[in-house]
Design a protein that fits this description.
Blueprint lengths: L9 H7 L4 H16 L13 H24 L1
Length: 74
C-alpha cells in the first residue's frame, strides 16, 4: 500500500494558523466521526470549476460559523 504525501499551500497554512487547540480537537473529532459512519464509500478525486466549488463552500462556511458560535455559547 502506497502512502500519499499531502502538500499544504501557504494560503491554507495561514488560514489554519489562528486555530485554537480546541478548534483543532473539534475538527479531528468531527473527522473521526465522519469516517466511522458505517456505509460503503469510495474516495474520488475530481476537478471542479472554482465558481461551482465556491457555491458549495459558502453554505459550509456559514454552517461552520454557526456551529462555532453555538459551541462558544456552551
Amino acid at each position: 500500500m502506497q502512502k500519499s504525501i499531502q502538500y499544504f499551500t501557504d494560503e491554507y497554512l495561514e488560514r489554519c494558523c489562528p486555530m485554537t487547540p480546541e478548534a483543532i480537537v473539534d475538527f479531528l473529532e468531527d473527522f473521526r466521526k465522519m469516517l466511522s459512519i458505517s456505509y460503503r464509500a469510495k474516495p474520488v478525486s475530481m476537478i471542479v470549476p472554482e465558481d461551482l466549488l465556491s457555491q458549495f463552500s459558502k453554505p459550509v462556511q456559514k454552517a461552520n460559523t454557526k456551529m462555532m458560535r453555538n459551541k462558544q455559547k456552551q
